[in-house]
Write a structure and sequence with these properties.
Elements: H1 2-13, H2 18-25, H3 29-42, H4 63-75, H5 81-91, H6 100-109, E1 139-143, E2 147-148, E3 154-155, E4 158-162
Antiparallel strand pairs: 1-4, 2-3
Helix pairs in contact: 1-2, 2-3
Length: 166
Amino acid sequence: MTERARFVALHAEALYTMTELCQRFGIARKTGYKWLQRFEEDGLAGLAHQRRTPRSCPPRTDPWAVAALIRLREQHPSWGPKKLIARLRTQDPRLALPAVSTAGELLKRHGLVKPQRRRSRPVHPGCGPLEVTTPHQVWMADFKGQFRLGDGQLCYPLTISDAHTR
């Protein structure tokens, strides 16, 4: 805050241009103008560090809607957020309900959703993973499709690669 006050004092002396002053303090000109505007509006208190988080959250979900959602989920533990929101909308159309994704997050936040286990990827039954230990042990070919050459003939290109060094 003392550096900001010094910045404002030097600006008031008019010895430096705004560009020079900002360069001396290592800030952008936009920041310098912001500090000056805050000083003009609030005095020295305006130069104090201001938090970046919003003071309020107007689009916050209505607590009545959250309570109704939780109550309905406790009655029907197998229903998902989409079905719960649809049911609440038919029960009380005046209630400001959140989006389905928000309802899912609310249920998760209140511990009403069991985390699902990640399913493992199925392995092809015909073969397992390649075990290649040395170069030139296994070669692979990949068909890249076909295209016409300038003389009208079809070309069928293949990519050949070594499984160990690819």
